[in-house]
Amino acid sequence: MENFLLWGFYFLTFYAFLPGLVSRTFGFRVFKRGRAEREIALTFDDGPDPVYTPLLLDLLKRYDAKATFFVVGNHAERHPEILKRMHDEGHIIGIHNYVHKTNWLMRPRTVKKQIQRTSEIIRNATGSDSVYYRPPWGIVNLFDFSNLGYMQIILWSALFGDWRKRVGAERLKKRIMKKLRPGEILLLHDCGDTFGADKEAPVHMLAALEPVLAAGQAKGYKFVHIAEMIAITDEAKKSNAGSDAKAESRKGGSKPKLGLMKRIAVSCWMGWERLFHVVFRVKSVADGSIFHYRVIKYRGATLELSDGNRIADKDDVVELHFDNGMLLQLMTNSRSMMQLAVMLIREVKKSMPQLAERLALDADAQLVKGLYGVSLMNRGVENFGFDVHKLPKGLFDFSSRLYLKLLLRVLNPSGKQRLSEQGARMEPRIMAMSMDTFWQRFSSDDERTAPNRAAARDFDGRLHGNGTNELHSAAYDNANAAREFTP
């Protein structure tokens, strides 16, 4: 029963909850807001509609506005002439699945077939391929990130409930006007033939949109399709990167702060983690410890350890988990990834003896063969007695890689920059240590720990030099090693 719950928990976490949370909150692998001085992106979902979409195209033409239409394949299939008009008048056509159904309720292969079928309809009507995709309701699943690598997923920065006719034209106009500012990606609907929508709702959308276009023109704004917004945003990022680097250098580094949306995402993540700890009986080590743990059966290929021991399939092991609340605190207080690495090393060094005391009193841990964990820490853990092994390629490797990178994206205030700079080099690894080595190094027994305390002092000395609390200038002459020491 526990295994069933565990796999169900993992499925919901990896397939649905985490991809949805991180993509919507942080824009992970999606584009949902631009950087522009006067451009606003208009996007329309669920069409084409034989009545309302031509009227919308007429309206856009009058104001020389461009837009992106995310079409539903079974609607587009019936009206190829409308697709051709969209294309001929300079608009972008994106994909919104063949039927308007959430990706959470479809297998990855089914989602891929829906996209391919809709892409073929667009190609036949316009002669061009579509490279933009918006999942219905903006809901992505785990495999959308890998299966759709050739497409750009587009979400939005503002939507207005215009699929319900009760909103009315006047109220809808006021809602849109509040979001009428450069860089916004506005989501509206030109068809009411999908589940939960009102068929006549686009009447109010058209009535509200015309005064919005007029107001935008009066303010000097330009309404663009998504391809132009992405290009403008890329240029803005390039120019800002240079000025930000210079400013950061002058300040000598500063502690990043968490915005409101990030605080909400972190709270959701922590709540999800607490639920996991309760359901699967994850235990705390001690107050202030960087670790949590649970005793499980190891599943996988035999791990050959450097002290001659081994961990075989179905052996009992202590599975280690980082305390992500403490990690968040460390990441928030650190000014650089190198400083974070040093702080994390110190916390691990402090927590290992605490873990030994806790395990010595835990009846469930008396017959375990070793410690086991999966982490993005690629270097430095050998100093604590761990052996490092590659994860075998497969579903577990893929899901671990995604989970840990999402974790960094959520918890680290600079996680997005960190992933973009070093993402290709960040690989999850298995860390394992036999209990013989663990007790020898970290037991409170003086006879066992004396040589290891000396080793720890030697290691600490190499970090700091001269017995001070300041880092020695050569302690991390290989900066990459410190950067790789991440949770």
Automatic annotation (TrEMBL):
Regions crossing the membrane: 6-26
SUPFAM superfamilies in alphabetical order: Glycoside hydrolase/deacetylase
Record carries keyword Transmembrane helix: yes
Top-level division of the source organism's lineage: Bacteria
Keyword Transmembrane helix: yes
Xref: CDD domains: CE4_NodB_like_3
InterPro entries the record matches: Glyco_hydro/deAcase_b/a-brl (IPR011330), NODB_dom (IPR002509), Polysacc_deacetylase_ArnD (IPR050248), YkoP-like_dom (IPR054467)
Domain NodB homology: 38-224
GO terms for MF: hydrolase activity, acting on carbon-nitrogen (but not peptide) bonds
GO BP terms, alphabetized: carbohydrate metabolic process
Annotated coiled-coil segments of the chain: none
Alphabetized UniProt keyword annotations: Membrane, Transmembrane, Transmembrane helix
Designated name of the protein: Polysaccharide deacetylase family protein
Species name: Paenibacillus sacheonensis
